[in-house]
Amino acid sequence: MPRNILYKKALRLRREGFSYNKIKKELGVQKSTLSYWFSKEDWSIKVKRKSLEKLKELSKTTIKKAHKARMSKTEKRHADFRKQARLEYGTLKERRLFNVGLGIYWGEGNKANRSIVSVSNTDPLLMKIVVDFYRKILHIPNDKLRIGLFSYEDLDEDTLKKYWSALLKVPVKQFIKTQTLKGSNTKRTSKYGICSLYFSSTEMSIKIQEWMRCFSQDKRE
Question: What does the alpha-carbon distance between residue 108 and residue 198 come to, in Å, rounded to a whole number?
Fold first, then answer.
């Protein structure tokens, strides 16, 4: 096809809003040639701007749809966790450790972050119950457990780590960086600092919340 005819057809298609890719496919003209032909045309610049706006709007719509699909999938997974928790509750509530551990978590556990299961306390005996709750009721492998300590300036960090590691049977390598609180522990109310025992699990966090709801409902009936 003669070059001048290709040029006229390309102009017509471009005026109709065709992209460079579509014109190339239609006429077999390289994009570099099309760019040279249209670069000085004001109307072509406007077409390009409109095409970019359409593409941007399409991208926004695609992102929104993808986000909605992910949210729907996440909500279904969370609903499945809650359903499973309700099925498990009937058996678990007969176990003393489950009830004691759930009670401790209700009072001392993290309920704000749905991806973390965590209890922080200064009482060694209470924390021993918590670690048993994690291992024997929630079936959390030991290598998934983490400990974070909150210490005071007059307490020795290594001594605290060795103490809590031996008590809870969690290796020191699974401790995160100790947070040192300003001032001294003059009243000696926390001889071994504050121990935060935690692990990451959205499933278990949601299940614990659902078990608490079931427990509360049991007491009302």
Answer: 12
pLDDT digits (tens, 9 = 90+) for 74-119: 889 999 999 999 999 999 999 999 999 999 999 999 998 889 999 9
**Residue pair 199/145 in contact by the 8 Å Cβ criterion:** yes
E strands, 20-145, in order: 116-121
Domains in the chain: boundaries: 88-220
Tokens of 176: 């995160």
Distance CA 24, CA 2 (A): 16
Question: Is 82 buried (19+), middle (13-18) or exposed (0-12) by CB count in 10 A?
Answer: middle
Rg of the chain taking only CA atoms, in angstroms = 32
Joined together, the tokens standing for residue 164 give 């809590």
**Residue 49, class by beta-carbon neighbours within 10 Å (0-12 exposed, 13-18 middle, 19+ buried)?**
exposed
Please state the pTM of the whole predicted model.
0.67
CA distances from 80 to 21, 75, 76 (A): 46, 9, 6
CB 149 within 8 A of CB 164: yes
